[in-house]
């Protein structure tokens, strides 16, 4: 069961409209390495974790990722606030507008919709945990690309925070992976 | 503003820095203070991995409400970090103890915030009597622009 807390994990207060950045950033919502995929992957994999540590860690990191979805969506929402149709068209968001208007939708930076295949699960704890370690590294790399694409401190500070979370998550998954390997779980 | 955000009541986390944990017969990881941990997104000094020359953000509260909220976020963050750590190190009693201390602080600040600014969760003490406070804007994603 989940309980909503009416605050972001890290505040988002973007003052400057930037549709291009919104178009890139949306991939951390609906892209292969995005927060939606991460949240669903961990919350889905937890059912086949072999012991209490795994069940807890996948539940708790999965829950944190739900909060990260909200941060990314808040950023996209604020970056696109007050955009005109012409402005959306100019950065290639005309297609998004025709399908979704001013609504949010999980796609990658090229507008491809979220694919449930991103929720990789094999049911093998070692395979799933190494999948997750790779996923955290890929998400970290995408955050770095996004930081390189931005020149707005209001955006960059949030991305630095989220990037660092991938670093911590990677290490927690790695600890568990190494322990499971010794224990011989498969 | 009393600038609470910059004052950690007690340097509890210091106990962990270079402390040998008798129960676990291992070194406890060195911890950042809760404020630095929150700003940089990482409580654990051995795991912190900055990107290029970027310096992490330095959230400056612009009013009392924000100041109180950032304090709450700071403790919530430390709690998440300790929670994840304890998931894979469940027998570290000194870390459990620190978790409880931060939890106490976080609860205190949440009560204080909710009494003045309205509920953070829908099981808050301050939901209103004639008017349902829960629905009041701003919602978290709206920012303070
Ligand atoms: Fe993550």
CATH superfamily of chain A: Ferritin, core subunit, four-helix bundle
Gyration radius from CA atoms of chain B, angstroms: 17 Å
What sort of overall outline of chain A do the alpha carbons produce when their principal axes are compared? elongated
Structural class of chain B: mainly alpha
How many structural units, i.e. domains of chain A? 1
According to DSSP, the number of beta strands of chain A is 0
Quantity of strands of chain B, as a count: 2
Please, could you describe this protein's structure?
The complex is a heterodimer of chains A (186) and B (145). Chain A has one domain: Ferritin (Up-down Bundle). Chain A has 186 residues and is an all-alpha fold. Chain A is elongated and about 60 Å long. Chain A has 8 helices and no strands. In chain A, helix 3 runs antiparallel to helix 4 and helix 7 packs antiparallel against helix 8. Chain A is 64% helix and 0% strand. Chain B has 145 residues and is an all-alpha fold. Chain B is 39% helix and 3% strand. A two-stranded antiparallel ribbon of chain B has the order 1-2. In chain B, helix 1 packs across helix 2 and helix 2 runs antiparallel to helix 3. Chain B starts with 19 loop residues before the first strand and ends in a 28-residue tail after the last helix. At the A-B interface, helix 4 and helix 8 of A face helix 1 and helix 2 of B. Bound molecules: fe (ii) ion. Fe (ii) ion binds next to helix 7 and helix 8 of chain A.
């Amino acid at each position: 069961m989940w309980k909503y807390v009416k605050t972001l994990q890290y505040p988002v207060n973007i003052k400057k409209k930037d549709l291009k950045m919104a178009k890139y950033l949306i991939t951390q919502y609906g892209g292969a390495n995005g927060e939606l995929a991460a949240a669903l992957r961990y919350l889905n994999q937890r059912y086949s974790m072999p012991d209490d540590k795994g069940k807890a860690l996948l539940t708790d990191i999965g829950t944190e990722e739900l909060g990260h979805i909200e941060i990314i969506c808040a950023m996209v929402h604020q970056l696109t606030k007050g955009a005109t149709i012409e402005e959306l068209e100019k950065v290639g968001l005309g297609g998004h507008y025709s399908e979704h208007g001013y609504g949010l939708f999980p796609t990658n930076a090229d507008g491809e919709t979220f694919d449930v295949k991103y929720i990789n699960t094999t049911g093998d704890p070692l395979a799933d945990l190494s999948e997750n370690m790779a996923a955290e590294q890929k998400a970290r790399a995408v955050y770095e690309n996004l930081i390189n694409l931005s020149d707005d401190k209001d955006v960059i500070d949030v991305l630095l925070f989220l990037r660092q979370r991938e670093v911590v998550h990677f290490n927690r998954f790695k600890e568990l992976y190494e322990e499971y390997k010794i224990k011989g779980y498969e | 503003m009393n600038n609470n955000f910059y004052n950690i009541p007690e340097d509890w986390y210091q106990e962990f820095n270079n402390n040998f944990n008798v129960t676990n017969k291992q070194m406890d990881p060195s911890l950042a203070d809760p404020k630095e941990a929150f700003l940089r997104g990482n409580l654990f000094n051995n795991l912190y991995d900055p990107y290029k020359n970027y310096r992490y953000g330095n959230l400056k509260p612009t009013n009392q409400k924000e100041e109180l909220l950032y304090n709450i976020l700071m403790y919530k963050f430390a709690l998440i970090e300790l929670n994840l750590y304890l998931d894979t190190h469940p027998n570290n009693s000194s870390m459990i103890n620190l978790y409880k201390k931060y939890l106490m602080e976080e609860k205190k600040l949440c009560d204080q915030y909710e009494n003045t600014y309205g509920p953070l969760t829908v099981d808050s003490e301050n939901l209103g009597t004639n008017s349902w406070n829960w629905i009041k804007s701003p919602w978290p994603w709206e920012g303070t622009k």
